[in-house]
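Incident log, structure service

09:12 report received: a user says their structure output differs between two submissions of the same chain.
09:20 pulled the input from the user's history:
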Amino acid sequence: MGIRPKFIFLVLPLIIVAVVLAGVSSYFVAAQAVTKIATQFLAFKAYELEKYADGQWKLLAENGVTESPNMVAAAKEAVVSFASSVVRSPTEAILAVVPTGSLAMSVTLKGDPVPPPLAGETPTLAAMATGAERGFRTLKLGGTTRVAQAFPFPPFGWEVLVTEERASFYDEVESIARRSLIILVASVAVAVILLLWFATYLTSPLVEVVAAMRRIITSNNLAERVPVHFDDEIGQLSHTFNLMLGALDEAREQIMKFALDAAIAQKREMKTRNVFQLYVPKDVIEEIFKNPEKILEGDDRVVSILFSDIRSFTTISEGMRPDELVRALNRYFAAMVDVIMDRGGVVDKYIGDAIMAIFGAPVRHEDDALQSVYAGLAMTKALEAFNEVQRKNKAKEFHIGVGINYGIVTVGNIGCDKKMNYTVIGDAVNLASRLEGQTKFYRQPILISESVQRKVKDILPCRLMGKLQVKGKTQGVKVFTVREALDATETETWAIWAKAMDLFYGRDFAGARKGFEAVLARDPSDAPALHLLETASDFIKTPPQPSWDGSEILTEK
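09:34 re-ran on a clean worker, output below:
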């Protein structure tokens, strides 16, 4: 909506309200005055008639003939005659109603009788006569609505009504209403015409400003100027707009230069991102571009570290041509990396045929430990699909081990200004690497630390493998394997294993040996059970030192 209609819609209601209030108040004042005069006129006639009737009755009383029917009838005739003398309007009538509801007197200007009461009107007239009420009232007689000034006259048993037809009584009031409405409509029409003219006069400079703006936007010609017609606020607006156009014209060249530079910089940034995503995780690149001042800063945080390695890779590589080996490795890495990234992990680096991945850096999630275990399980499944292709190609199958640890590490860009590497360092990383190495000893596809087991034990079944004391540490850590689900036989076997491990660490080696034998009876290929069975048998013969906590010391990294 334009400013002109807004201006009209804003001011017009104010004018209409003011005119309507003035007209309505004038109407009510005039109507009240006319009604008051007409009512008082009826009351005056009623007063004169009542006074005359009282005079007639007193005359009868003074002569002692109130009981004479003839004299009373003569007095009534005198009252009727006086009533005829006060009637002035052809629609006026003076009536006398008796308790039966009939008319004892009916006086009009021309002497024509008033139409008799209708059947539905008689009870109302009877009630009026019986009640002997006084004052102004409205009634229906002969189907015509009348206004009346009433007074009772008990000597005759009358209720006297000085009446006028309601339409005639309020004729002047309705005439005033019609004239007031005509004046009101004319006033509003004149106000609207004047308002339209003033709105056009006041807003025409603004319309010119808008038109000039549209031409400038369409033609992109900042050299155009807005005409200044008035030396007021609108004129100042036009002048200020012209000044702004001049400033914009000067700044446009600079803005276009900045835009060109920004476009070139954006293209360079995209090229940089595309190149470095081949070497650096995408999340790391996003973090660097978001906070470039923190590139060289380290950050301590809790993450999950996953190591995977192809077992006996040297033997595999010796039996394959270099091109076949490269194709197989690329296909293997593509499958493993997809699994890791699908679970929110970041591939930190390739160490020969090994993969190091991080869950929780640079972006942290509440379930990093769980997602890293899911990734390890998915890697073993992806390896099965990989080996199917290897068998079809009559190539050697790959076997991997996965080690996962969850702990505090230092995360950051490590290196120098010529070569940087976003990675994690710390004891937690070393333990994850050791766990991956011990998958060969325990003959398990996945080994996780106790810190990981605490995060996933309520979701995934875990089996305690033993305690390991890695090189350089004085205390052992519990090592677990994990599965996505167990069948009924595995569930029973793992339960027997758990009880046997409790007995073993409780130094009940004989009881533990029976438990390990029960596990081997169910699965003769269970390498951890076979190893601990031999260890328990040795401890029965030669018990360990009192300080023994069940840890197996690793002498190699």
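09:41 both user submissions now match this output. Likely a transient worker issue. Closing.
09:42 reviewer note: The mean pLDDT is 83. Residues 488-557 form one domain.
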